[in-house]
Design brief:
With about 240 residues, the chain is α/β, with parallel strands linked by helices. It contains ten helices and seven strands. About 45% of the residues lie in helices and about 20% in strands. Strand 1, helix 4 and strand 2 form a beta-alpha-beta unit.
């Protein structure tokens, strides 16, 4: 269970959003979040892992995408600290055939798994929440590193910073004008979508993400841009 003594500055936000969370995400990304998540799922199963963790799994879309692609006997666990989101994830997963992910509540800074337990840890559009001006950044990344087996892979799909100045300017304008306001109008939660827009607009470059990951011990950090660099898939090896 999450430790109430640990700082969790975004917890209230993500327990307030869930009822229309998926629909809003599809609308504000023009439906591209599905394709981007599929790219991450392919990266997660590429090494034929036996055990996978979907960290900060939210409503379970990455876990489900992995389950649909995984072959053989694979253990998939989704972990989040928002029980309302986990309830939605369980409902969605119940309708799929084959591998059934297990969804558990937990804290990213105190993962309830032994050292080296997972072959892959994936995270889908929540890495920014863990690492952007968040006091839990270092302990959370250290926990990911701890629960990965040697040679294990950390797969991240997240918003990014386009290289081109003009594209980057339009990307940030889109976030601050459309995403912040559309998210607020559909959810009624102004602070959540203002945070989402600003954190994405100001988030780290791929080079800064690589430096952050290598700082906790990862190596061979690669990056694949998506949609002109508005998002991307990072893969780091332990």
């Amino acid at each position: 269970m999450p430790d109430p003594a640990q700082p969790r500055p975004l917890h209230g936000m993500f327990t307030a959003v869930p009822p229309r969370y998926d629909l809003i995400n599809h609308i504000i990304t023009l439906g591209m979040d599905r394709r981007w998540r599929e790219a991450a799922a392919r990266a997660c199963v590429a090494s034929s892992p036996r055990r996978l963790l979907d960290l900060a799994c939210g409503t379970g879309d990455l876990s489900i995408a992995i389950a649909r692609r995984a072959k053989g006997s694979v253990e998939i666990t989704g972990l989040d600290y928002s029980e309302p989101m986990l309830e939605i994830a369980r409902e969605k997963a119940a309708s799929i055939k084959g591998i059934q992910p297990a969804f558990v509540i937990g804290d990213a800074t105190r993962l309830p798994f032994p050292d080296g337990y997972f072959d892959v840890v994936g995270i889908s559009f929540a890495f920014r929440n863990l690492t952007y001006h968040n006091p839990i950044t270092q302990p959370a990344l250290a926990e990911v590193f701890r629960v990965l087996a040697p040679g294990g892979r950390f797969v991240i799909v997240e918003s990014s910073q386009p290289k081109g100045k003009i594209i980057r300017w339009f990307f940030r304008l889109y976030l601050r004008v459309f995403v912040a306001n559309a998210g607020y109008l559909m959810s009624g939660n102004r602070s959540a979508y203002k945070y989402l827009a600003e954190s994405a607009a100001r988030f780290y470059t791929p080079q800064e993400v690589k430096k952050l990951l290598m700082g906790v011990g990862f190596r061979d950090v690669s990056y694949r841009p998506l949609f002109f660099g508005a998002a991307g898939v990072h893969v780091a090896v332990k």
